[in-house]
């Protein structure tokens, strides 16, 4: 029966991302119409790419299994950066990479002209603006999230945290969009696009619901906690459609857009996507697992920004840096499996015993 629920999970995640993709086209047109830069566009398009995570967290809150949403969001923010960098690097090893139909002077034009040289240097070229526009502000969001959730007096997620995270995201989005803004382009809107966007919202809701529902069934069958299921089941599966999207966008020559969109996605998941959990108020049941995961959530964008800024004269990722990021993710998994999780299982068992005792006393 577990295999059936795994199949349902895969189908549900794919449905949610299909819905999100229907929203990405209107957002891309708005980026062009309003004259936002390529790097800033990654922040803007993060609204679409992170929509499944928002839906998953909303469903988790409604169904009373917020740990699944919490684990899925934090887990995706640990593994997504190394996965997308590796995918982007592999794609850009192709000869004669397309310019993506962009004008000379834009990201696609530069990639087209310099691509052979980048391949010979074993370099994944990313614009330097990705550091100041996205990585550093995103690190600020992670630091704010840690301040709101870790200190003992206000540990966990509270309704006030939701308002603070909303303001933080709006500030992040504003600074990203206003940097390097140019004159907008004239775009045409078709009725079909509006209908597809509406269909996308419906698919997103359905996919998010069954993603959470199937994860509940899988973690129940495996006998693991909801947060671990979110970290190591829902998060990796939810990343699969984004891998294909990164592959497609990078293959079209829009390398910086493909690589930077992951940070825009993370900025949404660490702010807007947590708001449903703040509304219901959520304690942290496994503090050790939470702070270790949050530390790696911060480490990944720190390495991302450092590698782009310091790793090469042309700014981007050298081969050893591409390999280093998955190695860090593997270190996180090993740390959780061999150190954190045994403690987490004990804490979960103790918590379950306490809840059972409380229930018996109440009866």
From TrEMBL:
InterPro entries: NaCa_Exmemb, NCX_ion-bd_dom_sf. Residues 96-118 are annotated as: Disordered. Gene3D superfamilies: NCX, central ion-binding region. Residues 98-108 have a biased composition (Gly residues). The keyword Membrane applies. Keywords: Membrane, Transmembrane, Transmembrane helix. The chain crosses the membrane at residues 68-91, 129-150, 156-174, 195-215, 227-250, 262-282, 288-307, 319-340. This is Sodium:calcium antiporter. Its main location: membrane. Pfam families: Na_Ca_ex (PF01699). Residues 6-174, 195-337 form the Sodium/calcium exchanger membrane region domain. It is a multi-pass membrane protein. It is found in: Membrane.
């Amino acid at each position: 029966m577990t295999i059936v629920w795994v199949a349902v999970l895969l189908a549900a995640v794919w449905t949610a991302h299909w819905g999100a993709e229907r929203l990405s086209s209107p957002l891309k047109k708005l980026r062009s119409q309003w004259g936002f830069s390529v790097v800033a566009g990654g922040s803007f398009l993060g609204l679409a790419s992170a929509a499944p995570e928002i839906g998953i967290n909303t469903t988790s809150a409604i169904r009373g299994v917020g740990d699944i949403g919490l684990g899925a969001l934090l887990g995706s923010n640990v593994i997504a950066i190394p996965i997308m960098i590796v995918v982007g690097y592999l794609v850009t090893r192709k000869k004669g990479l397309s310019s993506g139909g962009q004008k000379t002077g834009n990201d696609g034009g530069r990639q087209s002209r310099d691509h052979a040289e980048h391949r010979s240097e074993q370099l994944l070229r990313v614009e330097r603006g990705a550091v100041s526009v996205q990585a550093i502000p995103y690190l600020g969001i992670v630091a704010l999230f840690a301040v709101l959730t870790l200190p003992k007096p206000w540990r966990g997620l509270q309704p006030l945290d939701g308002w603070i995270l909303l303001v933080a995201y709006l500030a992040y989005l504003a600074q990203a969009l206003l940097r390097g803004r140019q004159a907008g382009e004239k775009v045409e809107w078709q009725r079909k696009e509006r209908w597809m966007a509406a269909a996308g919202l419906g698919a997103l809701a359905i996919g998010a619901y069954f993603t959470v529902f199937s994860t509940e069934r899988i973690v129940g069958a495996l006998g693991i906690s909801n947060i671990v299921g979110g970290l190591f089941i829902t998060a990796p599966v939810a990343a699969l459609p984004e891998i294909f999207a990164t592959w497609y966008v990078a293959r079209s020559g829009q390398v910086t857009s493909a690589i930077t969109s992951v940070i825009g996605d993370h900025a949404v998941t660490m702010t807007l996507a947590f708001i449903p959990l703040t509304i219901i108020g959520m304690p942290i049941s496994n503090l050790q697992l939470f702070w270790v995961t949050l530390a790696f959530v911060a480490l990944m964008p720190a390495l991302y920004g450092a590698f782009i800024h310091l790793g090469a004269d042309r700014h981007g990722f050298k081969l050893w840096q591409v390999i280093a990021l998955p190695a860090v993710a593997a270190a996180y998994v090993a740390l959780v499996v061999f150190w954190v999780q045994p403690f987490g299982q004990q804490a979960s068992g103790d918590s379950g015993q306490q809840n059972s005792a409380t229930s018996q006393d109440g009866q």
